[in-house]
Specification:
271 residues; MetI-like fold; 0% strand; globular
């Protein structure tokens, strides 16, 4: 009897936690189809919010995409991901060959931006750009995203590089391969899964970032989606629900894809 009561209590607690977490998210998706401008009162089904979203000149500037907030967000995320992935991967390969003392120090320094609050990193970058007399702009946002994304790529790729057989590179050298060819054809193919994982993490961090972007961004034309949502917090537009719903669908689709892919891979290994 006590066991049943305990299981019921655990189940009820789990349900309450899930409702607390997902009820606001579900309400955003539901009210993105609301006919009325109210964000709390349902008055009928409509797709007008999505039409307003894709015709909004600030979010989707089709005549001049460089001034579009969505384009700005995606472009910075892609560019910072590519650069941080290259930097992080090369740093991981270099540290795997470095002496233990230097390697441990470098990894400890690398972890500082990861464990530090975003507000500390944001203020630090703001002071740095100010000291270098670099005005807040698109460029400062891009540099900031590269700076905080690279450590995540490094800690993702490094364990895979460390697990490689150290004799593989030597064997490639003995067969006449240059260091560049060895890197491209021997090392990178073996760590490509970790590189992809690090790139995905870097893209997510860049696309989702608000605090650091808010401090280092320039004029209103340099804002990303997170800053746009924050600036509309006092008088939220109904189409913001549509924008949030699209982002949720994209993120949810990626999570489900990874889940089923992992599940199928495990089934394949069992067979």
């Amino acid at each position: 009897m006590k066991a049943k009561q305990s299981n019921f209590g655990k189940t009820l607690f789990l349900i309450l936690v899930m409702v607390f977490i997902y009820a606001p998210i579900i309400s955003i998706a539901v009210f993105s189809f609301n006919q009325d401008d109210s964000l709390t009162r349902w008055s009928g089904f409509t797709l007008n919010r999505y039409v307003e979203l894709f015709t909004d000149n600030q979010l989707f500037n089709y005549t001049n995409p460089s001034e579009s907030i969505v384009f700005m967000t995606i472009w910075i995320a892609i560019l910072s991901t590519l650069i941080s992935t290259v930097f992080g991967t090369l740093a991981a390969i270099s540290l795997a060959k470095a002496k233990k003392g230097f390697r441990d120090t470098a990894m400890a320094v690398n972890n500082i931006p990861i464990v530090s609050p975003d507000i500390i990193i944001a203020v630090s970058l703001l002071v740095l750009f100010g000291a270098m007399q670099i005005a807040p702009s698109y460029n400062t946002m891009l540099l900031a995203h590269i700076a905080f994304s690279t450590p995540y790529v490094l800690i993702t790729v490094y364990p895979k590089v460390k697990s490689l057989d150290p004799n593989i590179a030597d064997a490639a050298y003995d067969l006449g391969a240059s260091p560049f060819v060895t890197l491209i054809k021997v090392i990178l193919p073996q760590i490509k899964v970790a590189i992809i994982a690090g790139a995905a993490l870097a893209f997510t961090m860049s696309f989702d970032d608000f605090i650091i972007s808010y401090f280092v961004a320039g004029s209103s034309g340099d804002m990303n989606i997170s800053i746009y949502l924050y600036t509309n917090k006092l008088s939220p537009k109904p189409m913001i629900n549509a924008l949030s719903t699209i982002i949720l669908v994209l993120v949810g689709s990626k999570i489900l894809y990874d889940y089923f892919k992992t599940k199928n891979n495990k089934l394949g290994e069992l067979e």
